[in-house]
């Protein structure tokens, strides 16, 4: 397990949760049962691997959210290692959380406990196909990797051409760092086995999409009501994964 904890959800601000829920359900995502940690309106959809948290509140979104028990102790250790927090709530009578940004301004949040319950119904892929990466646009992938490596030390894959792209295991999720100018915000990537079926659903439901958006050979970019972009590909653009040793350390991290 990486030092950042375990991935919980991709947290987004959804001013109209019902509209976003309809969108994701139409694409085959399943709504999960939530807990009572948050006072604001909140819902979660999942395909069994990817969980998307829909929050009706103002916050620095989107955010990659992890769960880390004993978060107060961990916060002290991170502060000693030079991390600067954007916000922090650590109190015996509150739901503990903290947040920080990476070198490119992407928000990362850590919570003391889960905020929803998993379901056996989410053991199947959505109509988008197999989720294979959460992509972050970065100015320089190697510089961004130097930030992520200490808290997500397993490098899964790397490519230098046509643009540098690195993929880490960040708390159980494939996190991509991309220099592609086509990606302007944190985005979700899927390997879709039924291209024509997906396009038919998008057209039938008047969903917002763009064919061949220019990112890594994606055949479509789909825009959710709250603004999240979902890319669908016929193949994973990075191919086979690197071997990672038992300690979770990457063997091929650039020196």
Describe what this molecule looks like in 3D:
The chain is α+β, with helices and mostly antiparallel strands. It has two domains: 115 residues, 2,3-Dihydroxybiphenyl 1,2-Dioxygenase, domain 1 (Roll); 104 residues, 2,3-Dihydroxybiphenyl 1,2-Dioxygenase, domain 1 (Roll), CATH 3.10.180.10. The protein contains four helices and 18 strands. The strands form three sheets. Strands 2-4-5-1-6-9-8-7 form an eight-stranded mixed beta sheet, with helices on one face. It has an eight-stranded mixed beta sheet with strand order 12-13-14-11-15-18-17-16. Strands 3-10 form a two-stranded antiparallel ribbon. A hairpin with a 2-residue loop joins β13 and β14. The radius of gyration is 18 Å and the shape is globular. The relative contact order is 0.17. The C terminus is likely disordered.
Topology:
Layout lengths: L5 E8 L3 H10 L3 E2 L1 E2 L6 E6 L4 E6 L6 E5 L3 H10 L6 E3 L7 E5 L5 E5 L4 E2 L12 E8 L3 H8 L5 E6 L5 E6 L2 E6 L8 E5 L3 H10 L3 E4 L8 E4 L5 E5 L22
